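Cross-check.
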Amino acid sequence: MRIALLGAGTVGSSVARMLCAEPELWGERAGRPITLAGIGVRTPDREIEGVPGELFTTDFEGLVDSADLVIEVVGGHDPAGGWVRRALGAGTHVVTANKALIATDGVELHALARAHGARLRYEAAVGGAMPVVAMVADNLAGDRILGMRGIVNGSTNYVLTRMERDYLSMEEACGLASDLGYLEADPSADLDGHDAANKLAILARHAWGGDFGPEAVDCTGIREVTSEDVHAAAAEGAVIKLIARAVGPAGPGDLPTLTVRPERVPRTETLAGVHDGDNRVIVDCAAAGPIEVAGMGAGGDATASAVIADVLAIARATA
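Predicted model, tokenized:
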């Protein structure tokens, strides 16, 4: 299976290194050879340790057209969305970590994939290495999901953890998070809650169906959280966390109730113990009760592991 990798940022670099480091392992797990055929980059002089230089190219369209499977980790809607549509429209499988694209256009992209016999997977778009998409979409398909709640943005969770533990201001904690790569140069998507809203919309669609996106989420970020708020919560035995919460539809034709907002979480609750870049989601089911899944929600290697798992799943399913 020829793999085209679009993007060589934090996640893309990790994907490239991991694919090149152990090709025999991935081939064994896939049931057939897995070959990284090329890496689409904006500048041809890109270098990644352990990755052959001849793999880098600025010809994204050419890569897409010659691949059996495209990994898209560029992010955003344009031009990434165009490359994803080009691949799916040609019957080429796609794995993406692009939560913004899947949150807004996922229904359309799934329809395009089905129409052309392609597979579309995006575990890495929600929660990094935490396998929550598969849990909600597949593993709990035999149950009825009543609701879900959790921490799905590792960047803001890191900021809030530092504010609590180290008595930092929001500005200081964000600076530290930026230095460590948790926050992008423009942290708006994280701090304003939009990243979490995208992820919640994706999970809610899998749980209850429907054609809606992040606009259905009542969203408030963490910008207004102060050190005083954090310390006041601590004095009352609680911590402040950015909680993504979904309640199932009240009746046929209704939408689920979706919110992202900072909440005081009592220290006795599971979500209070989620620190730094970790994520955790609790899914409430009619038959099975609460089911929890947790894992690293940020970081290149953690997210890359979810990307590669999706690649292997498609390779096995289409062998």
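The mean pLDDT is 96. Residues 2-128+301-317 form a domain with the Rossmann fold fold (CATH 3.40.50.720). Passed to J.P. for a second look.
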